[in-house]
Amino acid sequence: MKNKIFTILLIIFSVMVFAQKNSVEIDGWTNVNTFKCTNDNFKMPASISATPENQMPNIHLKVEDFNCRNKMMTADFRKTLNAEKYPLFTIRFLEFKAVSNRFSAIVEVKMMNVSKKYTIEFSEYNKSLVGNKRLKFSDFNITPPKKMGGMIYVKDDVDLLFSLAIKN
Fold it and tell me: What predicted TM-score, i.e. pTM, was given to this entire model?
């Protein structure tokens, strides 16, 4: 029965052609303001390979494609993630299953050569799967930046938000 449910979910997931607008957003806070850096310059695979190691999709995000809607903030964000040395931010789906009217995914997030696994709850909204997870810069050995001699500082917590378009 468990294998049958997994097969059905895999079929459902594999027919989700992510053709509409996809985005991954990182929201964070400083001691004086908030910031939102979005990457919507990627495509999800149109189909999922049947080989065991590739059953779930990977999202490869170029750090240079994140936009914080403020030139200086975008430059600082890319510098914080060391875009020159680590140009990719990767999200790999390890497991995806239906739980009631929601979905649960185990994902591996890789930033700056550090990988962490998280469980993320998704729900269907407006022809998209949306989900979020609170992470910490320190989970990835990243020191949040400070400006003006430390008078302005970025808090360690950030929210990772997903909006993955699905096709009916």
Answer: 0.77
